[in-house]
Amino acid sequence: MAAMAKRTYEGEGIRVLWDSSLCIHTGRCLIAEPQVFDLARRPWVDVGAASAERIAVAVELCPAGALRYQRTDGAPEEAPPSPTRLIPAPDGPVVARGRMRLETPDGQLLSEETRLTLCRCGRSDNQPFCDNAHRRTGFRAPGLVMGDDLEGPADEQPAQPGPTSVVPKTNGSLRLTGEMTLETPRGEVVARRSRISLCRCGQSANKPFCDGTHREVGFTSRDAVVSEARAGADSPEGYPANPQIDC
């Protein structure tokens, strides 16, 4: 994994962190609190322009987890949903919300997360995270709708309580284990699972699930590469806008 490019903004009762390597510029923070998040200003985050409570609500709208916060006034921190919510965005990444542990295939903990956008087009340079490659490459895959008859693996045993494990398999799928719901972009629950292998080569005929096509097409996973431009960015101003990720 590449080193994360984080910036910190201090305010009364709250500390906001922005990770430029994870940002896919959905613009949801800009809409929610435009006086706090302003691309025309430097620094682009003004933590003194709204209450800590309002800023926390806006930060939690960021689907990629690029924006995070820490309460410095003793107020509660972010409370992720349980079970973990998985929402395949139409023509885009899987939006994941919940208590998650990103792990290596051999079980090493990489990070603990509450919000992620996981690449499913297979072309991200920042695997397993989305970097908007789906837009550059014209990736097409539907989201879920109510009534979908999902052909995924049947669960043999109930999930154990605790965070969801997210494991990018070498040259293969995204393996998730834990209590999870698969949902439409409107938040309607289509299915519940305790184990899922999600396609990340972009070519499964059974999206969002893996069907083994990665072996046929020679999909090769690789370490995340964060460009110098992204690592040095002082705001998302130069990023391609991605407003359709509205999950």
Description:
This protein has five helices and nine strands; from the N terminus they run ββααββββαβββαα. It is α+β, with helices and mostly antiparallel strands. It folds into two domains: about 5-75, Alpha-Beta Plaits (2-Layer Sandwich); about 85-215, Ribosomal Protein L9, domain 1, CATH 3.40.5. Strands 4, 5, 6, 7, 8 and 9 form a six-stranded mixed sheet that branches. It is globular.
Structural key phrases:
247 residues; single chain; Ribosomal Protein L9, domain 1; 2 domains; alpha+beta; Alpha-Beta Plaits; three-stranded antiparallel sheet; 5 helices; six-stranded mixed sheet
Number of E strands: 9
CATH A-level architecture of the largest domain: 3-Layer(aba) Sandwich
| Count of spatially separate domains | 2
Please give the radius of gyration in angstroms. Answer: 18 Å
The CATH top-level class label of the largest domain: Alpha Beta
The helicity comes to: 10-25%
Low-confidence parts lasting 5 or more residues at pLDDT below 50?
A: none
CATH superfamily annotation of the largest domain: CDGSH iron-sulfur domain, mitoNEET-type
Label the overall shape: globular
Oligomer: single chain
Average residue pLDDT: 92
Largest sheet: 6 strands, mixed
Number of helices: 5
User: Span from first to last CA?
Assistant: 26 Å
Percent in strands:
25-35%
Determine the CATH topology of the largest domain. Answer: Ribosomal Protein L9, domain 1
Order of helices and strands: EEHHEEEEHEEEHH
> Structural class, judged by helices and strands?
alpha+beta
